[in-house]
Write a structure and sequence with these properties.
single chain; 187 residues; alpha/beta; seven-stranded mixed sheet; 28% strand; globular
Length: 187
């Protein structure tokens, strides 16, 4: 990895240091089981997929990100962790997922919704690729001083056909976790 890329990864880690519990909360929200197939959107440096395979090594994770530069750095991080073969990286964006319907047992996105221009479309796509009973986990910054930072996101998730099962603040309200599930019998 280049010195510049290494600096970028280190800066990212420092920026999210105060939200250190977000990875654990996200992985717990997915309720991983051996054989699960998980899609991580806005995967960046593959921090969340790496945590997933550390917790449950008998899963397959696809990390999708629009930045080929970040995917190149993620590839190095995956190799460094010895997780080749467990995590596949794919370029793309959340509004047009290049996967068949009902392909994944879980979908995650950490700190990526702010970069999505049509959040409703992205959530409909997440719903489409989830298998019935599959879980969606979103981790986002909430912004200080906002009483109900996830109200808009919860409304969008419900509009996309998802059943919201949990929302909770992380790091004293600086960030938050939203967990939803695709209902059985929906396509």
């Amino acid at each position: 990895m280049s010195e510049r890329a290494e600096s970028y990864v280190q800066l990212s880690r420092v920026m999210w240091l105060g939200l250190g519990t977000w990875r654990a909360a996200a992985v717990e929200g997915l309720e991983l089981k051996p054989g699960h197939s998980i899609l991580d959107l806005a995967t960046a440096f593959a921090e969340l997929p790496l945590e997933m395979v550390r917790r449950e090594p008998q899963i397959q994770v696809v990390g999708l990100d629009p930045s080929r530069q970040k995917l190149a750095i993620a590839e190095n991080e995956i190799e460094r962790a010895g997780a080749e073969g467990l995590i596949q990286l794919v370029p793309g964006n959340a509004e047009r997922l290049p996967f068949a319907s009902e392909s994944f047992d879980g979908v995650s996105m950490a700190f990526g919704m702010h970069g999505v221009s049509d959040q409703g479309q992205a959530l409909r796509e997440m719903h489409r690729v989830l298998r019935p009973g599959g879980r969606l986990v979103l981790v986002e910054m909430s912004g200080l001083g906002r009483c109900r930072p996830f109200e808009g996101l919860v409304t969008l998730m419900k509009s996309a056909g998802l059943e919201v099962v949990q929302t909770r603040p992380l790091s004293f309200g600086v960030g938050g976790l939203s967990v939803a599930q695709k209902r059985w019998g929906e396509f």
